[in-house]
Amino acid sequence: MTESPSQASQAHAAQHSRREERLGFLLVFLSALIWSFGGAIARFIEIDDSWTTVFWRSVWAAAFLLAFMLWRDGARGTIALFRGMGLPGLVVALCFATASTCFVVALGYTTVANIVLMQAGVPLIAALIGWIAFRERVSGITWAAIAAVIAGVAIMVSDSFGGRVSPIGDGLALLIAFAFSTATVVTRRFAHVRMTPATCTGTLIAAAFAATQASGFAVGSIDMAWLFAFGALNLGLGLALFATGARLIPAAFAALLGTFETILGPIWVWLIHDEVPSARTVVGGGVVFAALLVHIGLEFQRQARPQRPGLTGMPNPH
């Protein structure tokens, strides 16, 4: 029996959807892999003023993201994307500007492991912010995971009390996590806002603020090469890959793939720069990481359950 035109069309659509999903997996994984080198790249930059580093990193990232949008969407499409951001896009941009700036400044006070492992709790912190701001339902399992994240972060920052790392550095690392979490909640709440122009705007805001704080902008050729890698490749390319790929796969899968940054980031710095995480960082980070994996695993099970037509975005039968 031959396939009807409608059956052939449905099979073609399903095959196209699977190809897009595989592409999304690859792009999000590559973004996490690229981001994981951020701390290792930063350790090669020999600039005393962190604000100079923030300025040039943000400039290179903005240039890359703008070029990417012009290539992908053309001049008219890029202008339309910026116009369509609205207030939600501006909030996301401000959050991203805060996070990217704090990341560079925090590197001067604390270890890469402390910064990256605290970011592992972003999906759970986002759930907490969503409950506070929008009364989004939070399950008992998620509350337990949030409590575990708080406990894990408390173990990590306890190094500050003993003088091993600066409380300023750990405070900035926490601010990074909360900024990313807020951006996640706003993006989810206003799903029509495209992430790429918002993040590009965030890099421009970060560059403008850093310009008012930097003691100077002159850097050597070697440092400028590392700044290009830190900004255009580590930050800009990572964002472009994530913004493109995350739209093609479920959020839980994107969160799981994002944990590769958490795993690999401290490893690169350890192998390249011999920056060994403290015992408390390893223990606290392990608690945070385990809570995140359990939460994502349960989210997988929830998404795998068959849904009734008409619920959770599934089309009604015709």
Describe this structure in words.
It is a single chain. The protein has 318 residues and is mainly alpha-helical. It has helices at residues 5-35, 38-42, 50-83, 86-106, 112-119, 122-134, 140-161, 167-189, 195-213, 221-245, 251-273, 279-304. Helix 5 packs parallel to helix 12 and helix 6 (122-134) crosses helix 8. Mean pLDDT is 81; it is low at 307-318.
Q: Secondary-structure blueprint of this entry?
A:
Blueprint: H1 5-35, H2 38-42, H3 50-83, H4 86-106, H5 112-119, H6 122-134, H7 140-161, H8 167-189, H9 195-213, H10 221-245, H11 251-273, H12 279-304
Can you give me a brief rundown of this structure?
With 318 residues, the chain is mainly α.
Largest sheet entry = none
What is the element string, with H for helices and E for strands?
HHHHHHHHHHHH
Q: What global shape is seen?
A: globular
**DSSP helix fraction:** over 70%
Question: What descriptive keywords fit this protein?
Answer:
disordered C terminus, 318 residues, 12 helices, mainly alpha
